[in-house]
Specification:
With about 525 residues, chain A is mainly alpha-helical. Chain A has helices spanning about 1-15, 25, 30-60, 70-105, 115-135, 155-160, 165-190, 205-235, 250-285, 290-305, 320-350, 355-380, 380-390, 390-420, 430-455, 470-500. Helix content of chain A is about 70%, strand content about 0%. In chain A, helix 4 (about 70-105) packs across helix 9 (about 250-285). Chain B folds into two domains: about 1-45; about 65-190, Sandwich (Ctag/Cox11 (Pfam 04442)), CATH 2.60.370. Classes of the chains: A mainly alpha (about 525), B alpha+beta (about 190).
Chain lengths: ~525, ~190
Amino acid sequence: MTTTTLDYGHGHEHEDHGPPRGLKRWLFSTNHKDIGTMYLVFALTMLFAGGASAMLIRAELFMPGLQLLDPDLYNNLVTNHALIMIFGAVMPAAAGLANWMIPLMIGAPDMALPRMNNLSVWILPAAALMLLLSFVVPFFPGGGTQINTGWTLYPPLSLQVGMSMDFLIFAIHLLGISSVLASINIIVTIFNMRAPGMRMMEMPIFVWTWLVTAFLLILVVPVLAGGVTMLLFDRHFGTSFFTAAGGGDPVLFQHLFWFFGHPEVYILILPSFGVLASIIPTFARKPLFGYKSLVGAMIAIMAIGMVVWAHHQYTVGMSLGAVSYFMIGTIIISIPVGLMVFNYMATMWRGSMTFETPMLFAVAILLMFSFGGLTGIMLAVVPADMQYHDSMFVVAHFHYVLLPGAVFGLFAGVFYWLPKWTGNMYDERLAKIFFWTNVISFNITFFPQHFIGLAGMPRRIVDYNVMFTEFNVISSLAAFVFGLSHLLLLYIIIKTVRGGKKAEARVWEGAKGLEWELPSPPPFHSWTTAPQLAR
Amino acid sequence: MSGATTARGKRRTLILLAALALGMFGFGFALVPLYGLLCEVTGIQSVERRANQTAADVASATAIDQGRWVTVKLDATVHPDLPWTLVPMERRLRVRPGESRQVRFVAENLSGREITGQAIPTVAPWQATGFFSKMECFCFTQQTLAGGETREMPLVFSVSPDLPAGIDSLTLSYNVLRIPGAERVTAAR
């Protein structure tokens, strides 16, 4: 007990002199709030970088024929867009929320391993630089060919790409190391630093979602790292993991990739579902419906999600037994996912709901994510997938799952917690304008892609048949609105950081949880004495 | 909970998780043999098995099936490292199962230097792989072309009459790769 008292005194000492000044505060930071902020700023920057490549893709697809981009550059942009959005925007943003909120929610003074936390955030700019180099290197003389493989990096094509692929492999290694370190940190924090008396089954669902996500990351990211390492060996050291000429099998890479790639989908979605579990009870002013079943559903998603990867490769010629297994497994996942959606709806049922921006996002997410889930079941069915495979229908499907399921969830979380982080209320009117522009333009962008996909327009191809022109024009125009609407988000965030109506400690009327016991913004060092849980 | 216990707890969790991450990295590599083993045990055809089947099928497939046509399409892709072109003289031909046919490919070395390459064949759909046999093929050996040389290279093949009834068309596709260092060996000789 004596050590605890000492820690308390030590913490206060720090609180008095506040955070260090200048660049050192950020470079050497071990503070979970500063690191959380850095993650979020990095993610926002990457959102715009990935968004720029998406805008170029849509600009090229505005009309049939080749206008702006040559085919290799187009495919390089497709690769770049996916990798930046997944590894640069969504995963760091979710990690930023985790860094900010988990210690506040479980009553811990900081993350368990603060220096490792600093390492995992500062690897990201280096990784982003490598990713950027992989994109620009082919533009220089002797820079080799563009990465025209798509983010899945399938051999044999990925073995033939020039040196930019090596930059990309290195970037993936760095990003993987960063997220594995962050995950280890989060699990150690959750297991060891909960406020005295807080049992696992009393943690907020957001913390639970991140616990499951972190385990998924540790289980699958190293397998991807192994896969791209083999790719690197095949490219430079004469091994034949994937080259048929030397007895290897290119399909093996697809298995390694999707062993990571499918759980990755849940890695992207679960933290946002945790955000919803915080937002919906607050604005419905009712306790969360079915806490235990939510925890169970998440663990079920993690377990089943790890053994259904090959539904991404139905067309490679697996045996009937194998595809049947992967089809049934995939469809079974819709049960726990549906259960989570059902629990959120039941939480809203007969609640005293108000619709501030986070809640608007939450309701929209449930609707649009369910829609994406339904097209997912269509794709899970083997004979149907043989038709839909690699069509724009797939593009529409995964954007309906990942934008609402992951990105909008993060937006909702940012609006929900921004007053807590900055101490200022955001501009509700602007935020609502952002919500409606964002959601409506999103739907107009991606909804038509279902139809052109079913009508036979393939994805990852720069040109298309003239009969798809009208829907592509609609899709592109809405995409430009969608892309530009994020400038409004940026403006709202900057405006809130710089000032605004002061936020109270309990920002939202119905908000419950330890993070709302602290003032807004919370002190640089919070929970230096563990909170007493009310029983 | 005292500070020392928490520190010990943190270290233990950290070590376990780091071991898990390293273990999963190893598991990725372990999947290489495991994947082959799984195909072996469950009878899912692996690349190796498909290749071995060919020899057995060649022996059995002798009679010509006059009641059936199979379309064979030919295609070649040259690796960007290799300054060659490889073009089949006929792009598609109709054959009777069991009949042996000859086609020629034209290879040209666009560079001024002597270069060695190797063609790797693939048959699509893979279900047809075991029923397509090559009696003579330029892909059996490495090919060395002098600078600027153009050469016609033969392929003799047959399609087995046991080819599953559903398949009436197949594609033989060559991937030509550069064999680095092979030039130096020839030069030394």
